[in-house]
Amino acid sequence: MRGPEKTPKTTILGGGAWGTALALAALHAGHHVRLWARDGEIAKAITKGKNPRYLPGIAFDTGIEATTDLQTALDQTDCVLSVTPAQSLRMVLNEIRAHMPANIPLVLCAKGIERETGALLSAIVTEILPKAPVAVLSGPSFATDVARGLPTAVVVAAQDDALAMDLAARFSARNLRCYASTDIIGVELGGALKNVFAIAAGAVAGAELGASAQAAMVTRGFVELRRLGVVFGAQPETLMGLSGLGDLLLTCSSTQSRNFAYGVALGRGEVLEGLPLAEGVPTAAIAARLAAQHGVEAPILSAVAAILAGVITVHEAVEALMTRPLKHENLI
Ligand SMILES: NC(=O)C1=CN([C@@H]2O[C@H](COP(=O)(O)OP(=O)(O)OC[C@H]3O[C@@H](n4cnc5c(N)ncnc54)[C@H](OP(=O)(O)O)[C@@H]3O)[C@@H](O)[C@H]2O)C=CC1
Ligand SMILES: O=C(CO)COP(=O)(O)O
């Protein structure tokens, strides 16, 4: 006879919009959920069913145990979701190293490439927590949609198919459908690079260059994403899926995306300081550098990096893109 099912114990690192939304999703999937936030006020608010700084206007179920104490957050956990920004991952992993139980999966939910080193986030986990099986959760999913319980589909990748399937089953609930994948690199690259193309699409919208230009930018951005995927060893078909095409469709068309909104402000020539987190900003520079190092033709990535570095304007970038030598429509 089977014994009673054990309640999954899930720890979320990060009390921002996505950390809170994923904590709620885990709660709705029946987990015992603890969330670590570095800010005590945010931890208190989440425990009371709100996060006014990051999810304003959304009241949610109580039941998430939020704390500023890492030891408490990680005690007896059986799965950890890392949901702080990509550029903080190394710092956060170094902080949790002493408290992390051995052989517990670490699921990366941030989207970016480390600016200083060019490392993919999964490589940073392997370097700092070599005993933690690494997984990646990505796909078209606005935190506010997930927090409101709107239907959303994502993909969870792990090298071990059984782990990927387990995690997909663990986090799936009525309004969150998780597909499994074994292509960690493809899934993380799709999430990291779509942010840069969302900035490009936003800049085109902000500069009022028209819907046709926006569609061209997204389509050619997708070609660049697939080219970089080949270099990194991603499976090309992964990028046709939720983390890749799916997330481009979402974030290259909606001001709900912070990266798209950042691009809009850039295109309008507005002040950028103080805008919410746009992960595509640090990732653009390193992605353009990696593309150049590997001889990958990626004019949109380079243009976004150059605009963000203040080397060229949006209009100059568009003119340079439009007057490149004519060629066949190479799709890879
Ligand atoms: N929002 C969304 O819709 C989605 C976001 N993502 C990805 O999730 C990641 C996080 O995004 P999101 O939650 O939206 O971002 P937010 O800006 O909403 O929140 C970021 C959170 O990370 C915390 N944080 C920042 N730096 C550190 C650090 N060094 N140590 C500990 N905590 C830190 C912040 O704490 P504090 O408040 O103290 O500064 C805050 O709680 C990003 O990579 C994003 O691309 C993925 C899918 C959807
Ligand atoms: O990654 C996201 C949706 O899939 C969120 O996008 P932004 O970070 O641009 O808001």
Automatic annotation (TrEMBL):
InterPro entries: 6-PGluconate_DH-like_C_sf, 6PGD_dom2, G3P_DH_NAD-dep, G3P_DH_NAD-dep_C, G3P_DH_NAD-dep_N, NAD(P)-bd_dom_sf
Residue sites binding sn-glycerol 3-phosphate per the record: K111, G139, S141, K194, D247, S257, R258, N259
Positions annotated to bind NADPH: W18, R38, Y54, K111, A143, R258, L277, E279
Main location: cytoplasm
Cellular localization per UniProt: Cytoplasm
Pathway involvement of the protein, from the record: Membrane lipid metabolism; glycerophospholipid metabolism
Family membership: Belongs to the NAD-dependent glycerol-3-phosphate dehydrogenase family.
Protein name: Glycerol-3-phosphate dehydrogenase [NAD(P)+]
Species this protein is from: Aquamicrobium segne
Gene transcribed to yield this protein: gpsA
